[in-house]
Amino acid sequence: MTEEVNKFFQYLRVEKNYSINTIESYEIDLKQFISFVGDLLNKELLDIQEIKKTHIRLWLSDLDRLKLKKTSISRKIACLKSFFKFALKRGYINQNPTNGIITPRKEKRLPKSLSKQEVELLFTIQDDETAWDLQKSAILELFYGCGIRLSELVQLSIKDINLNQQQIKVLGKGAKERVIPFGSKANSAIKRHLNSRHELLGNSVHDSVFLTKNGAPIYARLVQRIIKNELARVSESTQKSPHVLRHSFATHLLDNGAEITAIKELLGHSNLAATQVYTHTSVERLKNIYKQAHPRAQKTNNKSEEVL
User: Fold this and answer.
1) Which helix (H) or strand (E) holds 274?
2) Helices 242-255 and 220-232, interaxial angle, to 10°?
3) Distances (CA, A) of 280 to 172, 188, 242, 243
């Protein structure tokens, strides 16, 4: 199946423009599945025509036995569905073995976000002594100031940034371009980074906005480590990913009266349902504020005075 698998991932990268994270996860999922079926059939090399629906059901049953989260199982099913749909389209198989395979309902989880006080602290404690420090500040400002995805930040080129108009152009999911404005603080942080970028770039020649300490284009894992370390300085939340800043961007816009349709466009969501999760976050926040601040929301020891 090596040829079919290689062509599938080339298709995801070139034609579908899937994010680096998704492709890496799919590679792991597909490798695990092929290994599982290989063990079942006692074969090191598999022919794609040998894969049956029974094998998929047995694999999913094994994943359930291992107590994997529903979100992980859903992603693995999505990977197989995408792969075998591709294989059928290219004529590698005559029947799609994933037909009839049901994806488990995902557990609804509200996105985590920073409080406005935590955001303020995050930017207050940033250093500006080295080119690396200035780059970190610019990365944080873009995540929180524009709500961009990790994959979008990694792919940014110098030509994608317009400092005069204070906007960036990103390539989102499904190869959809969108232009996002940013504020004066982000503008200042980006300018400072671009002015010191040559110190990181060294003898390298490319136009990636963000770099490693060796001057190569920055990569997703490194950005994740940077954000995790920075968020650990201001938040005790277990979630410390770039997505936390993206969620904070959307939540704080909504809290301050922004239209949800505008937030949808800024985030690059294909449908409004994906954006509406932030309305739930805001409602929960309002409930907590109400319980803490409103005198009739406070419970007393006297049961007759409790407000239910």
Assistant:
1) helix 272-275
2) 60
3) 24, 33, 20, 17
- Tell me whether residue 55 is one of the annotated catalytic residues: no
- The continuous run of DSSP H or E covering 176 comes out as none
Domains in the chain, start-ordered, CATH in brackets? Answer: 2-89 (1.10.150), 116-291 (1.10.443.10)
Catalytic residue among 18, 26, 92, 278: 278
| Active-site option among 149, 247, 252, 264 | 149
Number of helices (H) and strands (E), helices first, in the chain? Answer: 13, 3
Any catalytic annotation for residue 31? no
For the stretch 95-106, pLDDT in tens is 999 998 888 776
Catalytic residue among 173, 191, 228, 285: 173
- The CA distance from 96 to 168, in Å, is 41
pLDDT tens per residue, range 16-66: 888 888 899 999 999 999 999 999 888 888 899 999 999 999 999 999 888
Active site residue 109: no
- Establish whether 149 is a catalytic residue: yes
Of the candidates 55, 169, 192, 269, the residue annotated as catalytic is 269
